[in-house]
Structures are given as C-alpha cells and as structure tokens.
C-alpha cells in the first residue's frame, strides 16, 4: 500500500490486488444479467462490475483492485469520487436537484460559465452555455456558428471524433462502430485531411494545412463555411498530435474567411494534456471551445464557450434543454475546477508525461512493434505496427489490452485502425502505481510482441 502523491487523503488502499480471475465470478454473474437486460448495442470493454473507485484504483464486485489507466475515458481527471467533489454534490443534492435553468435559474450555472470564460484561452469577452454531453455541446457549437455566420457548411477532419448523435455521427470519421447502419447523416459536412505526423510521409504541419485549405477553397468555398471544428489533439482517432503549425494555420484560414474556428477540447481540455486547454500549445485562441469529459468528475456536464458576439448571435430561447447545466453537475464542476486550480493540475499531468514518455521510448527501442510514441500530459499513446512498416497491428493492441486487463490494469485501445494503445490516468494516480502499470505493459510486450 502506498500513499497518494496528491494532497487528498482517500480511504481506498492504493494498490493493485487480484483475488480472482479478471473478471471474477460476481462480475460474470452480473454480465450475464447485463446480456439479458441491456441492449447488445451497448458494448462493454472489460466486464468488471465496479463498486468503488478513487485515487488511481477501481475496486470490483469480487474485491479486485485494478489500476485505472483510463479515467472512464478522460473523465475522472481529479480522481474518481474526489472527496471534495463528493462533498459538493452531496450538499447540492440535499438542497435541490433540479429546477430547469430556463425556468428558475440558480447561481451554480452562472458560476460554471464564469469559470469557463476565465479559464479558456483568450482575454476577449466571452459567454458560455451548458449542456449534458459532449455531442450536445458540439451540436450547439454548430448551431451557434451557423446562426452567427448565416452559412451552412461545417468542415471536420479525417480521424475526427465528435459524438454519436445524428449530426455528430456525420462529423465523426470512423465508420465502425460509430456510424455503420445508422445513416442517413446530416448534409453540409465536409471532411479534409488532418495532420498525422506518423503517417504523413514527412509532410509538415503547414503543408498539411495547405492541402486541407486548398480542398476547402475548391470543393466548398471558404465563404460558404460556417465552422471549422478540430480537436487540438485527436482523441478517438488515435491521440494524434498534429505537426506544429497545422492547427494554427487552420485557425488563420478560418479567420481570413470569416469562419468560426471551433476547438473540440472535450477530451483534451481541463488539464488533461498538461495545460488547461490543448489549444494553448499552438498559441491559438479559438472562437468557440467545446468542453465536457474532465469538467465535472463524471457528473454529466458539457459546455460551449466563446466570443460574446458569436455566442450572443442566437435568438433568446434558441439554446437550452431540460437538464443542461443541472445544479448537481454544476456543483461537481465547481469543486473539480477548484481542485485543479489549487493542486496545479497541469503540473500533475506534466509529471505523468515525464514518467511515461521516456519509459515508452525505451520500450520502443526494444520492441519495434511500437512505431510511434506520442501525446501530451496524461493523454499518451503508442501506435502499434508490423515492425519496420506503417501497417497497423490491431491484433497486438488487442493482445496487450487483454494482458493488462487480466493483470489488473484498466487500459484502452483506440485509433482509426484500432492499433493505438492509449493511457489516460487520473491526475491523482500515485507514482508507484503508474510505474507498476507500466511494468505490466512491459510484460505484455515480452509475452506478445516480437
Ligand atoms: C467524447 C468526445 C465527444 C462526445 O462526447 P459525449 O459526452 O460522449 O457525447 C466529442 N468530442 C470529442 C473530442 C470527444 O472525445
């Protein structure tokens, strides 16, 4: 048992402890009930049924304690059930659970918007709106950009991911599992090349941006485009960090053509990459930013934040929803943001990067199946290939994932080809547990890679 490296004291022992096979008998019994009760369309990656979680561990129904290298997909950045968040949620839930902000408002919603306006890049005047999910934030950002520009076209990137609603499915690149059999999709969505340094055969960021913007000029016309929406680091596409200059050049093109430039920071935001927002690495100030995932420690909340003149271009009543900016979710967000500010969360993410990147680079020297090591902060990935080629090795990624799971480490794969192994530990991960997880990954390579 080790102590936490952060100021919080969490009762859960911070250890990897396996007392059954993974998944164990109680989890398997629950998984059988899941199959009988839950739509088969809702997949489960690792059927261990969770009873508690915190710091860097997840405890399952059989009493196994697993190391959490996924944070529920970049959500529990401040630690699962962070005690300060839990206290804020409990206090709010005892006072009132819902009024609908559009009917009778409350301070928490306004305070979350003030925090978003203060923390997002740029010191211009801003406004925010709160929603329930990342996809809903993206949809609203598109609505706002269309209302402001009175244009329709939306430009997205290859490998982009923006959600699973109809509009955002259309904006998402990958067919399986996100889009297959779910069409038709919304019109006026155009996809242009991203910068993917590992696969661009030496083309630099500005050259890739030139290819993308030339495509926009020829096939859409810059004057018809309402919004260009880009993840500063692509998440589900494979933790693709664009080559320097690409993101800024796309923002410059948008500005020159009166296009609203939207950074989808739903996965990369809220200190995940070692800065508050990943747009900061290129010095880009987006017109609008979408946020969700890391914002409220798992309570469903999302936001759109941006230039006041754009955000205020929508007619009153044009934005909203029954639950958007729910008071309990807002209380969680305020506590999570406060925790991030007081504990210098960007520095915590940077220290995870400082442990992981050298370890993974070393591993890549030993195992040429690791074609690329990339990412920032606590958003790190390795891309697996047939040694000496760019051919994706999704089978190896799956085998490593199984190895980690069976040995009590929760890991995730991703990427257009399913061959990217990604790491998203909570920022409360104790350093010895992080090292233990990496040791198990190394064993996985020794067992499964050439
Ligand atoms: C997860 C994600 C979304 C969708 O968020 P949901 O809350 O799942 O709807 C959108 N954009 C990016 C970049 C994401 O990572």
CATH architecture of the largest domain: 3-Layer(aba) Sandwich
Number of domains: 2
Order of secondary-structure elements: HEEEHHHEHEHEHEHEEEHHHEEHEEEH
What's the CATH topology name of the largest domain?
Answer: Aspartate Aminotransferase, domain 2
Overall mean pLDDT stands at 96
Q: Name the overall outline.
A: globular
Structural class: alpha/beta
Structure write-up:
The chain has 450 residues and is an alpha/beta fold. It folds into 2 domains: 159 residues, Alpha-Beta Complex (Aspartate Aminotransferase, domain 1), CATH 3.90.1150.10; 257 residues, Type I PLP-dependent aspartate aminotransferase-like (Major domain) (Aspartate Aminotransferase, domain 2, 3-Layer(aba) Sandwich), CATH 3.40.640.10. It is built from 13 helices and 15 strands. The strands form 3 sheets. A 7-stranded mixed β-sheet has the order 4-10-9-8-7-5-6, sandwiched between helices. Strands 1-2-3-13 form a 4-stranded mixed β-sheet. Helix 11 runs parallel beside helix 13 and helix 12 crosses helix 13. The longest helix has 22 residues. It starts with 24 loop residues before the first helix and ends with a helix. The relative contact order is 0.16. The N terminus is likely disordered. It binds pyridoxal-5'-phosphate. Pyridoxal-5'-phosphate binds next to helix 5.
